[in-house]
Sequence to fold (957 residues):
Amino acid sequence: MEPQLQLKRIAAVITLAVAASTTVYAQGSGKVAGKVTNVKTGETIAGVTVRVLGTSRVGSSDVTGNYNIPAVPAGKYTLEFSYLGFATKQITDVEIKDKDVTSLDVVLDNSEGRILDQVVVTGSFKKESIGALYAQQKNSISISDGISAEIIKKTPDKNTGEVLKRVSGASVQDNKFIIIRGLSDRYNSALLNNSPLPSTESDRKAFSFDIIPSSLIDNIIISKTASADLPGDLTGGAINVKTKDFPDRKSFEISVGLGYNSLSTFKDFYGNKRTVGNYFATLNSDNKLPNSFPGSFQDYSNLNLNDKVNYSKQFKNTWVTEKLGKVLPAQNAQVTFGNSYSLRNEGKLGVIGSLSYRNSETISPEVRNDFNTLDQGKDLKIFSYNDIYYRFNSNIGALGNVSYIKNDLKLSLKNIFNQGLEQSYTQRDGWFDDGTKEMRKVTLLETIQKRMFNSVFDGEYLLNNDRQSKLSWNLSYSNVNVDQPDLRRTIYSKKEGSDPNSPYAASVGTIPSPSGAGRFYSSLNENIYGGAVNWSISTKLLDQEQTFKTGILKQNKKRTVDARVLAYRDLSETTTDQTNLLAMPLDRIFAPDNISNKTLILEDITNPDNFYEGTGDLNAAFAMLSGKVSEKLKASLGVRYENYKEKLLTGTLNSSEENNVDNTYNDFLPSLNLTYELNSKTNLRFSFSNTLARAQFRELASFSFYDFVTGITKKGNPDVKRTRISNFDLRYEFYPSLGKLISVSAFYKDLKDPIESNIISGSSPASKLMSFTNAPKAYILGGEIEIRHDFGFINPDVEFFKNIVFSTNAALMKSEVNFEGSQSTMENKRSLYGQSPFLLNLGLQYSSDRLFDANLFFNRIGRRIDIVGFGRYENGSFISEYPDIFEAPRSVLDFQLSKKFAAKKAELKLNIGNILDSKSIFYQDVDKSGKFNDAGDRLINSIQYGRNVSLSFGYRF
Fold:
């Protein structure tokens, strides 16, 4: 009852706070707000005068290009936008509603010698906002795609991961990770409010976009070509998510939801007993190493037997699994608050905050096989297992932004915090054959906690209004922490053909092995500090308007990874004692009562290389000039310089200098973007740039990690270098009208020293050691088509057709990596690791203010290499001994339906995911048909996900 009482008190405080912060409107009045953009450059304009004609209400756009005019009496007005050197624009029939906010984004034209006709907008203002975003996209110096807050408001999307599905050229995995043009994570960059985001994953360069609520997004822009002001490690694309600074209106929103999975919900769920803290993403104290346990391998190894027994007894019996009941529907909740406050000094304060919570239980059946080399027969297996994964996930998140603006100065502090917990229990049944076939029952118990915090303090100052001279800066700090305590794995086995009534025996030997019966502990901590200063100014060159921009950046990151590997050792004195001991069930065998100098003890078998510390220090500077060369041709020319120092120490003993990394790279990265305006609706673009792809610390560290699920040992390579890429893009784009786009693109990427996965020489199918290496060269050649268009062409007078929007993004790609004989165990030429040959996104959206919103999305990605195989060369020909493992294409179809009611304050959303109930298949293409064939290929792994149905309710106060 006490926790419930505390929650009630907290809810009461929140309610009072919201009530106390009510925005004061004039009697029968509302406000109008929006952003003013240069139609030619897509840049925002500061200092634009905005008048509500017929009233005394007047305002101006601030340093960010935003304007906000409060206390406008309810009614219809004409708004006038004027600025020196730009044609004045008047927009008529702008409706101001009582205690409401009218959103209106506009674009201004500064074409000399031309008078811009009056623009009249009636009815809904959504198309004007969409038009402003697409004007920015059309006039962007680089090839880009985007989505605005006005479109996002019309969707049922809850987070940024779902929103990104609607952006052309992007494909989203697991509703959170983004792929651009079929390129893997390492080739993409993620930014939040122009500041680089940290990776939320420990072993890959990826950001989990599902932690940012969609209601807080102002817009999202994906740049597919580089410019000098973007990070140098942009090859596929840069995703820049911009959150709102100053809410147009006071808002307090809540949403709650439930989710159903066809394979999991209401089924029996098994695992370790949970605590209340697990539901809020905190760890159990029982899973942590005992406080008094020796801090290093050396300290423990030097102990006598009795001391080891005493320390081994301190470990809790966390091997006990039990039925935890039926799987309940997944639960999620979110609270969002935002408001703007006028201050006495004529400044304005904006506050935005969000709290989110999720938890779910899932059951996932899998089939997992592995095979011997082909020369021993296509169907000769090493093992065959049926797995059932029981996973519990909980997640808490918070976002808080505070912004201040006065006259020409704007300051913001933006923070994101997210913490997630995953507890998994794997039941594995099957057989293993390493010369003697045995039946196995394997148990894997795992807990992972991930925590991420990101804070950015940024500012803008308008130095000169007439020349739009702006100074911007930011300071950032990020922390990523991954804690994996007490990963437990044990094998119970018996020989095939033995007495059916004989028990399975635990695989605890006189020589300790973590794969047979062991505990694994690891922790990762990464801190990233950054800062940047940019300056831009409008100028004239050859009688054409130009924007000059320059800036510097500093980023320093430090990662520390530590691991302890413990395994049980059998000390039984007689065969009978050993037989009786190892026949004990899992919930008893490792209990403290069975730890002694005549039964079992824990041994520390940590390798000195199970530790690494890495630092990356980035110093960058850039300069660029953008503007018109002629009436039809625009150009952006720039260069970016990046100095990057990476250092990495592997091993607590520091005995092997060969395992250490100390590299310094100096790179000049030029970029050229040309845009030729064929007519007012059509552009032809060309882009050239040099970019980079850097190795992750995990890929550099000689840190061996045994993957208990796949049986593969992964180890980094300190000799891996960064990749240099030359990018060429050509694009034809047609904008039929506001919010519509048809484009065709071709691109080519030349990679020098691409980072590839490889199997180290000496590996066998039963004992694979995977690492990373640089291939001498590779290329990617592709074509892409993007369409966003409504069905108004059928009958433009029927609103129904105009409310249906079709979108597609399709890309065909050919990639080839060439090892030029540098790898004796791999084929000289093959497709890039992780690269898909095609990508297809289809979307059909219906939106109606009076009825409902409906969305149908389809996604399919071509097959890609998941694990590189190995072989040998004979007489100049490559003979594949263990073929590459491919991930087969998977078709995913999702549907969303939403309905607003109660004066549009309430919304009900229905989501149906994986309608086709498609599963993931990983296989070896033995028959070389290019697709999975159950009869002719080897099935390595298949994963079932089931269909998902979720229902959520939201209300805006």
About this structure: The chain is about 10% helix and 55% strand. Confidence is low (pLDDT under 50) at residues 1-26, 112-129. Residues 2-20 form the longest helix (19 residues). The CA atoms of residues 38 and 108 lie 5 Å apart.
